[in-house]
Design a protein that fits this description.
This protein is of the alpha/beta class. It has helices spanning 3-25, 28-39, 77-94, 112-118, 124-139, 155-166, 249-258, 272-285, 288-294, 303-341; strands at 43-48, 53-58, 66-71, 98-104, 147-153, 173-177, 196-200, 225-227. The protein has two domains: 44-269, Rossmann fold, CATH 3.40.50; 274-341.
């Protein structure tokens, strides 16, 4: 029995003992959580119930050609049952020759606003979380021929950013979904020169637009590749928690990244209002960039003032960029409506092209084997 199997067997014994105790005590919430762990069909690689730290492996790590480590965002035990384990199972079910590990091995805040109020890039809590993620990935002892994709959602992308920027995490691919930032303003700061980086941001995802943890990874100025989340004939992703929805283009793109099918990925096509709003936000953030870099590890007098100022600049830049995007988008709608009214456009032309919709002549991804990362 290898070390992972021994670890899982020992943790399963502990889970079953705790389940028996919770059942005897009538603790329904704890019973539900523990039953979910037992019945999920996965191997429990990490079990620290006092800290609510868990890791669950789906698939055979030894025979898998591809391994994905999924890092979820904020929440509690109910999210583990209702969101994180089902999301990991959805990814595993679709990704052939792959194993998927759900890793929730850090102290995450109750909600993203609480995180924004108390954390900023490279805070001690984030460095500790990033170090824990790096140590866990190293403990998997993957073979050189196995690929490793880190798939991070929401606050999990912030932890992943800290792990990449400051803790030496190395992987084949990184995909972040619904990310409010990764503690840096430029992809180069994540040290992914030999890796691929992708992001997903669904329309209406307000968490991804917070802009309080650095430049949004889906911004054109960040330097990564933004993937499409909504194809017309797929399940639609319209909210922060829907990226792993079965049948969605968002999940399909995740699967293509995990399995290295880069020629099948579908890139997001930005409309002019979105590009303009992103550029405005980038320009407004520029004055804070040298200050942020100089004070990245500063913890002396005035640190909290520095943190609050950086957050204010990020939030103001993000909100201003969103306003510019909305104004230009509404102006575009008005112009198209007027063109329809005067007969300058055919009736079958929609008022506003659907964001991310495929075009017959569009290049939808990098050729297989070509490195799609732009660093």
């Amino acid at each position: 029995m290898d070390s992972l199997s021994r670890r899982a067997a020992n943790n399963l014994v502990a889970v079953e003992m705790d389940l028996a105790g919770a059942t005897a005590e009538g603790d329904e919430d704890r019973v539900r959580l523990l039953q979910t762990l037992v019945s999920s069909g996965g191997q429990v690689l990490l079990y620290r119930p006092q800290l609510q730290h868990y890791a669950v492996l789906f698939g055979d790590m030894e025979s898998a050609r591809h391994v994905a480590v999924m890092v979820p965002g904020v929440g509690d035990g109910s999210n583990l049952c209702d969101d994180w384990i089902p999301d990991a199972q959805n990814l595993y079910d679709e990704a052939e020759s792959s194993a998927v590990v759900l890793w929730k091995g850090y102290d995450n805040p109750v909600d993203i606003l609480a995180a924004a109020a108390g954390s900023i890039e490279c805070s001690e809590d984030l460095v500790a979380a990033g170090s824990a993620l790096t140590a866990f990935v190293d403990s998997l002892s993957l073979r050189p021929e196995q690929t490793l994709a880190v798939v991070a959602h929401s606050f999990g992308s912030i932890v992943t950013g800290a792990a990449l920027a400051d803790c030496g995490l190395r992987c084949t691919d990184v995909l972040v979904a619904g990310s409010p930032g990764m503690t840096v303003d430029d992809l180069r700061d994540l040290h992914l020169e030999q890796s691929h980086f992708f992001s997903e941001q669904a329309p209406g995802d307000v968490i991804a637009e917070l802009g309080v943890f650095g430049t949004a990874p889906s911004s054109p100025t960040f330097g990564g590749i933004r993937l499409s989340t909504n194809a017309p004939d797929h399940a639609q992703v319209q909210a922060h928690s829907e990226y792993f929805e079965p049948g969605s283009e968002a999940l399909e793109n995740m699967v293509d990244v995990v399995t290295g099918q880069y020629s099948d990925i579908v890139r997001h096509r930005s409309a002019l209002p979105e590009i303009a709003g992103g550029l405005v936000a980038w320009v407004l953030r520029m004055p804070a960039v040298p200050v942020r870099m100089a004070g990245r590890h500063y913890r002396g007098p005035g640190y909290r003032l520095f943190v609050n100022w950086c957050q204010l600049v990020d939030l103001g830049a993000s909100e201003t960029g969103n306003i510019v995007t909305e104004v230009l988008d509404e102006s575009e709608r008005a112009l198209v409506w007027f063109a329809h009214r005067i007969g300058a456009l055919p009736e079958d032309v929609p008022f506003v092209p659907e964001a991310g919709a495929a075009r017959p002549d569009a290049d939808h991804g990098a050729d297989e084997g070509e490195s799609p990362a732009r660093t």
